[in-house]
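Can you give me the bound-state structure? Components:
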Amino acid sequence: MNGEGNSGPVFADPITADLMLSVNGDEHPVTVDTRETLLDTLREHLDLIGAKKGCDHGQCGACTVLVDGRRVKSCLTLTVTVDDREITTVEGLAVDGALHPMQAAFVERDAFQCGYCTPGQLCSAVAMVREVADGWPSAVTADVSGPVALDDDEIRERMSGNLCRCGAYVNIVAAIRQVGA
Amino acid sequence: MRPFAYERAADVRSAVAACAAGMADGAGAVYLGGGTNLVDLMRLGVVSPGVLVDVTRLPFDGVEETAGGGLLIGAAMRNSDLAAHPLVRRRYPMLTQAVVAGASGQVRNMATVGGNLLQRTRCSYFQDVTKPCNKRAPGSGCPARNGDHRNLAVIGQSESCVATHPSDMAVPLAALGAIVHIEGPGGSRKVPMPGLHRLPGDTPERDTVLEPGDLITAVELPPLPFAVRSRYRKVRDRASFAFAVVSVAAALDVEDGMVRDCRIALGGVAHVPWRAERAESALRGSPATEAAFAQAADEELAQATPLPHNAFKVPLARNVVVRTLLDLVEAS
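Here's the bound-state model for the whole set.
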């Protein structure tokens, strides 16, 4: 106690902020520590536990959510930075109880095993298909000044920010191809 | 993680003032872009600022055409928007290729142009606060020289630091001589690449020539018509989402089988994005042949002083330069 022994660094008191977060169309008043990530706020304050904590370093993609429609790593996003954004989590993909086409394709194609990475895969895939529709090139696009077609190489490259330790990649690619190609 | 105050800047003046105020308090103030590197480093305890000044809402998130055919890229522009911009793709394809070769789709959506330039090395000792590191804790030593340095620098390093600069985007910017626009407590100035970054020498704690409180507001791409034929080629340990072992950005202007002009920069080999000026000089006016490309690459890499576990990078860099230049010849 009191900074003796192995108690680690002694910090000043936390600094908090009162925010209104817009998540899946609902407004949520929250008081957060400025250090808090969007991932922790979603899971610990808003009971939205779809987004998962895998590596907590931005490497595995399990925490992927959409901010203003774009896929981001919620483990590297400070909550105080997104109070003026529209956040969509995997819980917000379905509309009126009907699965999003990407969710239906994942079920149909058996695109998961343990399911831990799946919410991140789904959010990432939904946004990725939109990026392709917007003509964004990738590292495997032969001519970056030309149009883009979503073949399997493009899917694999564009989904490289989402790891699946079960190795369900083959069926994940098939599910995304079914929706996006 | 140390608690920090968060401030969102609405304009450059207030951003620079907020950062200066935080520094004057002794709190340690830094600018926050996408946070993809900074937040991770804060979590690891590598950096612990007391004030974060969020500069992502500053009105510098687009691309403007400059007189003469260049582009002015706002520093708050997201990496994915930069890569997808039609004028960047058409005029400077190596820049788009480099950006999309870096990180992952999610990270590129977050990362800003300014932040990309200022990301820190991924040297494992720098990121591990339980280890000595002259860059993180000056004077504590460099375990990498006798330890894990397989992916560290082979050129321009010093006794005190063998870190590499991890950015892909910075490599074509160095090749282009992109001009970095800076606003700071001391006013505004412009620094041409690759001069933004510095070699480690005996002060590796300084990655760049920026002074405390300096804010990158834009990156200007000079007109370079022959950059329409340019290419970024990256070698890494896996097919995607990995830092470069070696990379090259090159643009080639060939007429009647002779090199009229060229631009070459290397990534993954130095503390800075390495502009290959010796190779460029050797190539101007020479035939556009494999033999000439190899000789030019050898002249550049004669400066290399690799360590035991990264000596493979020297022939790798040579081969990647040659292959990339040959690809450009074949495409022209």
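A couple of observations. The mean pLDDT of chain B is 97. The radius of gyration of chain B is 20 Å.
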